[in-house]
Amino acid sequence: MRTQVGIIGAGPAGLMLARLLRMQGIDSIIIENRNRDYIENRIRAGLIEDWAADLLIEIGVGERMKRESLIHWGVNIGINGDIHHIDFKKLVNKRVTIYGQQEVVKDMVARRLADGGDLLFEVGDVSVHDLKSDRPKIRFTHQGKPQEIECDFIGGCDGFHGICRPSIPDGVLKIFERDYPFGWLGILAESPPPDHELIYSYTDGGFALYTMRSPTLARLYLQCGHDEDIEQWPDARIWDELHKRLGGARKLEEGKMLQKGITPMRSFVAEPLQYGRLFLAGDSAHIQPPTGAKGMNLAFADVVYLSRAIEAFYKKKRNDLLESYSATCLRRVWKAQRFSWWMTQIMHRFPDESAFDHRRQLGDLDYLVNSESAMRSLAEQYVGLPLD
Predict the structure, then answer these.
(1) Catalytic residue among 99, 200, 202, 275
(2) Which residues make beta-bridge pairs with 266?
(3) Cα distance between residue 300 and residue 302, in whole Å
(4) pLDDT band for position 287 (cuts 50, 70, 90)
(5) Is 94 assigned a catalytic role?
(6) 225: exposed, middle or buried (Cβ count in 10 Å: 0-12, 13-18, 19+)
(7) Residue 193 catalytic?
(8) Distances from the Cα of 251 to the Cαs of 41, 85, 184, 236, in angstroms?
(9) In this model, does residue 267 exceed pLDDT 80?
(10) pLDDT score of 343
């Protein structure tokens, strides 16, 4: 097979890249090791930044999102039961959109297939070759047969555990990472969320996040040990902690738990995001704690930059945007890492913190909710910084 851009991974990054390229008349082939049902139903993040929601509409995959999503013009910060509202509309006149990542993937897969674009599921034995040449190759098996794609560029959009990043030779990448001494126990419950907007709740007993997928479907999280066994968290214990960490500030209705699991918290960045004709995007290049809600949005930003660079190569015979792709992305990546780290450290209890650390944290929170400048800074970053 021959195409202009071979894309490994049919998550938000890979699908968005393919759509942006198609709108510029640039051909691509997407390969994905999972089946369609799996990628369309894995529960992931559900918060879309202001610019990213506009982009989904602009590229023709946002109609269902407009009908079914929830629009939030603010967020709530809880401090030991006291709720403080941060008004995005007043502060920055932008919003965030609540719409599950799996729903975004469904919409983009449907559009890709309706357009007749190549999208191969359940591929195996994927490898990349000749990355420093002008004709890199992707080899894999599909339906039991060996296949090869010859292309001009490879989009490495195959996630943290994919093959693209490990295919870069030893000594090229620098890895920056931090593991946090806690995780999130998350549930999906058939119950209305306690507020029409998100509640980030700090308590002396630990953090909790109260969010939603719909007016009748709550997505709720508790800070817990990073190595805890989910079997030690029966439903009754989870609900009890959720009530405690809300502190009676809102009514929390209990419902049937549809899912529950524990996710460790980490920060990770690989530099550079490119090697020869291979370009990393999304989780293959960086992971952020979910506190800042940046994962899918940062993946979209990566491939916007990449699509612009590839378009400039074909239409204007320019290489400069390809050469600066990594530096361009990393400026945004590190701002998102900083914000995600800041949100994580200000809202969570750390097991090794001192009495000084605890009082300083409470001072940070008090300043945040009583300073218009501090609230505007949070709002500006939370709704999404503008693309360069």
Answers:
(1) 200
(2) 179
(3) 5
(4) very high
(5) no
(6) middle
(7) no
(8) 30, 17, 22, 17
(9) yes
(10) 98
Q: Is 382 one of the annotated active-site residues of the chain?
A: yes
Convert 211-245 into a string of H (helix), E (strand) and C (coil).
Answer: EEEECCEEEEEEEECCCCCHHHCCHHHHHHHHHHH
**pLDDT given for residue 43 in this prediction:** 78
User: Annotated catalytic, 290?
Assistant: yes
Q: Residue 30: beta bridge partners?
A: 7, 119
Q: Is 207 exposed, middle or buried (0-12, 13-18, 19+ CB in 10 A)?
A: buried
Q: What is the mean pLDDT of residues 309-316?
A: 98
Instruction: Judge whether 99 counts as a catalytic residue.
Output: no
Residue 69: CB partners within 8 Å, gap ≥ 6? 48, 53, 97, 98, 99
Please give the structure tokens belonging to residue 88.
């995005």
* Residue 213 region by backbone torsions, left for phi larger than 0, else alpha for psi between -120 and 50, else beta: alpha
Report the SS3 class of residue 333: helix
Report pLDDT digits (tens) over 3-31: 999 999 999 999 999 999 999 999 999 99
Which is nearest to 189 in space by CA: 222, 166, 159, 167?
222
Determine the pLDDT at residue 45: 75
List, for residues 160-177, the tens digit of each pLDDT value: 999 999 999 999 999 999
pLDDT confidence of residue 30: 98
The answer to whether 329 and 302 are in contact (CB under 8 A) is yes
Backbone region of residue 129 per phi and psi (left: phi > 0; alpha: psi in -120 to 50; beta: other values): beta
